Amino acid sequence: QQDLKYYLEAGDSRSPTYQVTVIPAPVIWITRVQYDYPKYTNIPPQTVTRQGDLEAIEGTQVTLFAETNQPIEHASVIFATEQNPDAKLLPMTAQQQAAEIPFLLQMNEDRSASEYHSYRLEFITTRQHQSEKPLVHRIEVTRDLPPEIEILQPQQRRLEVPVTASQIIEVRALDADFGLSRIALRAVAGETDILDHTLFEDQAGQSGQLIRRFNFRPAQLGLNPGDEVSLRAAAWDNRVSPQGQFEPQV
């Protein structure tokens, strides 16, 4: 806890007096975390202070800011998975007693969970002393949810329509978290695609529920009595990959 002096005695003999200088244990801690969310989400940047656990939508760039109680020789962030506590190491930018690093929060390959479940910070001082027993911080990456779609009308799964008549197809779609970029109606007769009609399109994405209608006319599609047609509605969200590519979920 403090500096001290000591000597040894044996009988009437006494050693010289020695000095013990106590050096504080190297410690590193998170001062703040900056979140820069993907642009397509329209979520403004956010800064959280003194909270090392991370939680954000996939594709968010996180910047960690840390401080230490001693000058830094070099500092690192170590990411862990369930199988490997040292899955990945990234060097931090360090100056005096401060360090920082930006990185992306991503899902694993099949997008079923976070790429890493936790991380810790470690550093070595200019006196070559290494920090010990680092705090382990949790990482939780939220997946961008796929859109939802359903055919409201007709309600029957199977319907007969005269060649000269028409049938209203009503579709409802929504994206629970961000926005819809496209809604389409597709039709197949046997092995032949006869319809791929876009009901709505906006790459920037539109939030909330959208309802669109299409007037299905067999004669205009070149259908004949007895033809059987399969209809399918599809919806795309406005997801953009961490690499900046438009990669909507369908």
Describe this structure in words.
The chain is mainly β. It is 0% helix and 54% strand. It has no helices and 18 strands. It has strands at residues 4-6, 9-10, 13-14, 18-20, 28-36, 46-49, 54-57, 61-68, 72-80, 88-91, 93-95, 98-104, 118-125, 136-142, 148-153, 167-189, 192-216, 229-237. The strands form 5 sheets. A 5-stranded antiparallel sheet has the order 6-5-8-12-11, with no helix packed on it. Strands 7-14-13-9-10 form a 5-stranded mixed sheet, with no helix packed on it. Strands 15, 16, 17 and 18 form a 4-stranded antiparallel sheet that branches. A hairpin with a 2-residue loop joins strand 11 (93-95) and strand 12 (98-104). The chain starts with a strand and ends in a 13-residue tail after the last strand. 22% of the residues are buried. The mean pLDDT is 95.
Write the layout of secondary structure elements.
Layout: E1 4-6, E2 9-10, E3 13-14, E4 18-20, E5 28-36, E6 46-49, E7 54-57, E8 61-68, E9 72-80, E10 88-91, E11 93-95, E12 98-104, E13 118-125, E14 136-142, E15 148-153, E16 167-189, E17 192-216, E18 229-237
The Cα radius of gyration reads 31 Å
Give the helix tally: 0
Which spans of ≥5 residues are poorly predicted at pLDDT below 50?
none
Q: How would the global form be characterised?
A: rod-shaped
Helix content: under 10%
Largest sheet: 5 strands, antiparallel
Quaternary organisation of the protein chains = single chain
